[in-house]
Amino acid sequence: MTKPCVWEELVGQRQVADHLAAAVRRGAVSHAYLFVGPAGAGKKSTARALACAILCDDDACGECSACRRVKRGAHPDVRVIAPEGAATYMVEQVREIIRDVHLSPVETNRKIFIVEAADSFNDGSANAFLKTLEEPPDDVIMILLATSYDGVLPTIASRCQVVRFRRMAPQESIRLLIERTGAGEDEALAALAATGGVLARAVEFLDSPVRRAARGRMLTTLKDLTVSDEHDVLRAAKTLLAAVKAPLDDLKAVHADEARERADFLGSKGVKALEDRQKRQLTAREREGVAEVLNIAESWLRDCLVMSQGVGDLVANRDEVDAMEEVAAVITPAAAARALAAVKEARRRISYNVSPQLAIEAMLFDIREVLRCPR
Length: 375
Ligand SMILES: [Zn+2]
Prior knowledge:
The chain is α/β, with parallel strands linked by helices. It has two domains: 5-164, Rossmann fold (3-Layer(aba) Sandwich), CATH 3.40.50; 208-372, no CATH class. Helices cover 61% and strands 7% of the residues. It is built from 17 helices and five strands. The protein has helices at residues 5-8, 14-26, 43-55, 65-71, 91-101, 123-134, 154-157, 170-181, 185-194, 199-206, 209-224, 230-245, 248-262, 268-308, 321-330, 333-351, 356-372, and strands at 32-36, 78-81, 111-115, 140-146, 161-164. A five-stranded parallel β-sheet has the order 2-3-4-1-5, with helices on one face. α5 (91-101) links the parallel β2 (78-81) and β3. The protein is globular and about 65 Å long. The N and C termini lie far apart (63 Å). The structure holds zinc ion. The site of zinc ion has 7 residues, from α4.
């Protein structure tokens, strides 16, 4: 028997894919899964594949309308949920999820919830969530994602079937990325650096001229920093943010289509719910974009550091070697550490809901100080 397409795409996690595909075919899908594994291991892609397999009428074909909408995050019966609070799920958000869980599916006879960062419940929100996990409606399937089993509250973990994902070796990610996109090795390395090693995002990144343009903008900003005055830095942060938001236009177009298609059978309450969900999706996508330019800044600075230490073969941004060489010639490990700390601080601020623009401005000023006095 030939394997269905959505499973075929999960080349990095063969065992997990085979196990889940078999469960779907036997009609033995669990009500709650906990996918555990490091970032970049393919948990979310696998969760989407499982959703396709459950909702598809054609054995997880990957091509039908249901499969395609699951994959681009536009299927009304598949919800992808990420914490909206400062790095944790808030009780209010969980209450909203629970209300949603008890609504009937829109198009099919199943509803699937992909819950990211399941290690981010606090005691309050975990308690609210537990009741649903204990007695889910028959048509609901929960797929929780977490980077470590120990980070998930035991009361939650014990109610799920645990599926473990192994860490993909960097060499394996590079090979798969090249195989899947036809990119060169240099491009593949840069894409993985930009996306924190997450293969599925790296594939999208290489396919997105606007996201690659945002990378170029971040790199130019870094290279210009030593000669930038205050005004230039502020303007650079603004331009960078605009570049980060540019890819959202595609998603807005998808949203507009979705709203048009479904306007007829959604009541006014349904339209409101749809708009709320789309707004959340946009916010999440913008955060991903910001995270991406921060990854790029971090990898560029780390590259300067490894070059200064004479281990240039570990460089991730090979197209930047010339510019980095100048910095590498003068920067000390202590100075590089200060610059890297500035990126980390920006990430922390954003996770605490500081505006990305302000966080990036502060980061650029800090990195500028380091690059001007790299000792
Ligand atoms: Zn299908």
